[in-house]
């Protein structure tokens, strides 16, 4: 047990529906989006240090970390993403913050996020059925996947969730309501199906509402197949 395990609640040693996390290797800690408690928690590993409230009063849904150790959090109520450094009280707005909507400077329910080596922030803009990329210091984002309404065509997404950018710059997206994982190159009109897309089911080539994607150091792809209550591994995705 790394964090929680003390029942549902809002004490420092409790969590209530944690839905995302990231590992802070430098501080040997886990940063957790504690969804129903409207806070982001920091739990230190292999020490007796008490858990800390890293950010309070935030409708967090996704967390990420950059190469300098700054923490990024999506706030689905405020339709924004902020960057937090140690000691910050308000964080720095890096994406959105212009109300709920479908303009390039807006989100409608931002969910999972990813930060690349250039500090660009990728956001699964779930209510707009698209993935947005906000470059560092940008005033608006660019659509890098979807944005053509909900649907299952190769140019569409339907409630995208977890996402990751591979070492070739390809954006890999858990296309939740389409029960598939998509790959999208920046600037492409259409994406391609990586896994799933064969109807909702339990077969090895099927998914059910996938929620997250990740790679290991060998380039294998892992998918959180949420509706099937399992984790799927697809070997040697990245060459």
Automatic annotation (TrEMBL):
Each NHL repeat, start to end: 151-181, 201-237
Gene3D superfamilies: TolB, C-terminal domain
Keywords recorded for this protein, A-Z: Repeat
Pfam families reported in the protein's UniProt record: NHL
PROSITE patterns: NHL (PS51125)
Keyword flag Cell inner membrane: no
Cross-referenced InterPro entries: 6-blade_b-propeller_TolB-like, NHL_repeat, TRIM-NHL_E3_ligases
GO molecular function, one term: zinc ion binding
Coiled-coil intervals: none
Name this protein carries in UniProt: Uncharacterized protein
Taxonomic path: Eukaryota, Metazoa, Spiralia, Gnathifera, Rotifera
């Amino acid at each position: 047990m790394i964090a929680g395990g003390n029942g549902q609640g809002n004490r420092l040693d409790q969590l209530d529906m944690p839905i995302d996390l990231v590992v802070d290797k430098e501080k040997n800690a886990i940063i957790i989006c504690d969804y129903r408690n409207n806070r982001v928690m920091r739990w230190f590993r292999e020490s007796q240090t008490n858990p800390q409230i890293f950010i309070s009063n935030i409708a967090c849904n996704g967390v990420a970390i950059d190469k300098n150790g700054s923490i990024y959090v999506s706030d689905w109520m405020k339709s924004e993403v902020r960057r937090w450094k140690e000691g910050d009280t308000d964080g720095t707005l890096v994406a959105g913050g212009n109300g709920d909507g479908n303009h390039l400077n807006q989100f409608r329910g931002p969910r999972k996020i990813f930060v690349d080596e250039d500090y660009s922030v990728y956001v699964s803009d779930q209510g707009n059925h698209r993935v947005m990329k906000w470059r560092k210091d940008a005033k608006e984002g660019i659509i890098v996947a979807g944005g053509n309404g909900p649907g299952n065509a190769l140019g569409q997404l339907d409630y995208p969730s977890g996402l990751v950018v591979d070492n070739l710059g390809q954006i890999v997206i858990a296309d939740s309501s389409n029960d598939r994982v998509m790959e999208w190159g920046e600037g492409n009109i259409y994406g391609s199906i990586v896994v799933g897309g064969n109807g909702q089911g339990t077969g090895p080539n099927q998914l059910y509402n996938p929620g997250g994607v990740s790679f290991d150091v060998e380039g294998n792809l892992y998918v959180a197949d949420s509706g099937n209550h399992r984790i799927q591994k697809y070997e040697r995705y990245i060459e």
